[in-house]
Amino acid sequence: TWKWVVGPMFLYLCERLVRFWRSQQKVVITKVVIHPFKTIELQMMKKGFKMEVGQYIFVKCPAVSKLEWHPFTLTSAPEEDYFSIHVRIVGDWTEGLFNACGCDKQEFQEAWKMPKIAVDGPFGTASEDVFSYETVMLVGAGIGVTPFASVLKSVWYKYCHDATNLKLKKIYFYWLCRDTHAFEWFADLLQSLEAQMQERNNADFLSYNIYLTGWDETQATHFVVHHEEEKDVITGLKQKTLYGRPNWENEFKAIAERHPGSRIGVFLCGPEGLADTLNKQSISNSEADPRGVHFIFNKENF
C-alpha cells in the first residue's frame, strides 16, 4: 500500500509547500474603493504576479483571522498594473476586513495603516478560453458577474490596442440579478464600455441584457413609466433593464440564426440549476452537421 500512497503524498506536500511559499510573498494594498451597498474593491500589487482573465485567488487577512482563506474572483484585467477583487460585506470575515481597511471611518486612511494581506494564486477557470471563439455568450448570475468584469476589461484593452488580431468579434452578455444592490459597481464598467464603443462607432461589438429577477408590481409600474427615457433609470445605460427571466430557447435560436456555421462559446458563472438549463440548450441548438452552428458550454458554479 505504501508504494501507492508515497507518490501522491509527495506531490501533495510539494503543492502545499509551493502554496505556502507564494502566500508568504509581500502583497501591497495600493487602493481601497468603497462602492455602494457595502461592497469594497481592493487594488493590490505583488511581485511576479501574473494573471489571466476570469481567474481567482485565495485571500487571508491575519488581522481578521490567522487561519481562514477565502476565494475571490479577480476583477482586474491582465493589462492593468495591479490586480483587484470586489468584496461584498455579507458575514463576519468580510465585516472584519471592511473594518481592518478603515472603511468604517470617515477620514482618509494612510497606506501604511492598511492590514497585511496574504494571497495564494491565481488559479484557472473556464473563462480563460473566451478568446478562443469569434462569438461568445457570457452569463452571470448575481455576484457571478465578477469574472466577466475581468473578461470585458481585457477584451476592451485588446480591442483598443490591436483590433485586427483579436479573434473575438461579438459578445452577448447576460446578467441575472435579484435586486438592484449589485448593479452599482458593475454598471459603472458597462457605462464606460458603452461610451467608448460609441466613440469608436462599434456599439454592436457588445450586446448586453440585464435581467432583474426579483421584481415586484411597484418596480414594474415604475419601469413602464420611464421606459421611453433615453437611459435606464436603474443602471444609467442605454440598454433598458429587463424584468423576469430570459427565454433561453429563444435567445439561443436567435444567436444561432445570426451566426450560422460558427463555434459559439457559452460561459456561465452561476448556480447549478442555471448550468443544467444552458447545457441542455447548448446541446439542443447545436447542429449535427460539423459545418453547422455549435454551442460549446463552459461553467463555473458557486
UniProtKB/TrEMBL annotation:
Q: How does it sit in the bilayer? A: Multi-pass membrane protein
Could you identify this protein by its name?
A: NADPH oxidase 2
Q: What SUPFAM superfamilies does UniProt report for this protein, alphabetically?
A: Ferredoxin reductase-like, C-terminal NADP-linked domain, Riboflavin synthase domain-like
- Compartments (UniProt record): Cell membrane
Query: Keywords, A to Z?
Result: Cell membrane, Electron transport, FAD, Flavoprotein, Glycoprotein, Heme, Ion channel, Ion transport, Iron, Isopeptide bond, Membrane, Metal-binding, NADP, Oxidoreductase, Phosphoprotein, Transmembrane, Transmembrane helix, Transport, Ubl conjugation, Voltage-gated channel
Q: Name one GO molecular function term.
A: metal ion binding
User: Which cofactors must be present for this protein to function?
Assistant: FAD
